[in-house]
Amino acid sequence: MSEETTAPYGPTIKRVRTAHLREMKERGERFSMLTSYDMLTAQVFDEAGIEVLLVGDSASNNVLGNTTSLPVTVDELIPLTRAVSGAVQRAMVVGDLPFGSYQASPEQGYLTAARFMKEGGAHAVKLEGGIEMAPQIERMVKGGIPVMAHIGFTPQSEHALGGYRVQGRGDAAERILRDAEAVQEAGAFAVVMEMVPGDVAAEITRKLQISTIGIGAGKECDGQVLVWQDAFGLRSGRMPRFVKQYADVRSVLLDAARAYDSEVKSGEFPGRDHTF
């Protein structure tokens, strides 16, 4: 595919690359990131102008019905990544490395990441961890794989962290900063900061040359990310504090399903216009 594509929502545009995110940070421009797990949402979000689409291990909860992100496998995520990467014209697609697929060694991490690039068509990969994951990041980058890091609250480590808790308060802020500096030095092109106090995230954003992406980390980050089912109201129930809901997709879908069910049972559908 060429570097430039013509999209229906605007003038000629470029495929979003890591260099573009760096240039946006230098200009003080913010960018958006959403999860996506299928071709149709990927097409919509791409058309909307979302710069980065994350095929997250959150597919474990949002697609496969697990209660946490831990059970999802590489073999389950790669087809989802391929569906998203094949559907977009502009957005960068990032494949999320699942729990147990990279922590053992830099070589394990590289081989897993290579599968996401070769089989899934990902443009980059994401992994969780700070200082301790620097060797993995360095190995992937040396092997030609762009890496997005993830620090602060890291869902794959929820049991070790004692549950869903804000990370980096008080004296722990220095640890988050060290993690951020370590992943930058290892070669990551961006870092997600999850559930980190806003003032800490702002300081890190000012100090780093690479892009920061917040999720529950305040407005001073270079970009923001949300799980699309949370942000657009496909999921019901209690939401994390950092989620803002921009739509109520679940209610629209529920009303449509009820209308369909009613028309089938009454005999109204299919009508003459829907019959050969």
Automatic annotation (TrEMBL):
**Record-stated family:** Belongs to the PanB family.
Segments traversing the membrane: none
- What binding partners and quaternary form does the record give? Homodecamer; pentamer of dimers.
Active site, UniProt feature: E194 (proton acceptor)
Give the enzyme's main class according to its UniProt record, as a single word.
transferase
Record's superkingdom?
Bacteria
Q: Which residues of the sequence carry a binding annotation for 3-methyl-2-oxobutanoate?
A: D57, S58, D96, K126
Task: Write the record's keywords in alphabetical order, separated by commas.
Answer: Cytoplasm, Magnesium, Metal-binding, Methyltransferase, Pantothenate biosynthesis, Transferase
Q: Where in the cell is it found?
A: Cytoplasm
Listed cofactors:
Mg(2+)
Binding residues annotated for Mg(2+), in chain numbering: D57, D96, E128
- Example of a GO cellular component annotation carried by this entry: cytoplasm
Q: Which pathway does the record list?
A: Cofactor biosynthesis; (R)-pantothenate biosynthesis; (R)-pantoate from 3-methyl-2-oxobutanoate: step 1/2
Q: Which gene encodes it?
A: panB
List the Pfam families hit by this protein, alphabetically: Pantoate_transf
Which Gene3D superfamilies does the protein's record reference? Phosphoenolpyruvate-binding domains
Record's catalysed reaction(s)? (6R)-5,10-methylene-5,6,7,8-tetrahydrofolate + 3-methyl-2-oxobutanoate + H2O = 2-dehydropantoate + (6S)-5,6,7,8-tetrahydrofolate
User: Which species is this record about?
Assistant: Nocardioides silvaticus
An example Gene Ontology biological process:
pantothenate biosynthetic process
Q: Where would you say this protein principally sits, based on its record?
A: cytoplasm
Q: What is its EC number?
A: 2.1.2.11
Q: What does this protein do?
A: Catalyzes the reversible reaction in which hydroxymethyl group from 5,10-methylenetetrahydrofolate is transferred onto alpha-ketoisovalerate to form ketopantoate.
Q: What is this protein called?
A: 3-methyl-2-oxobutanoate hydroxymethyltransferase
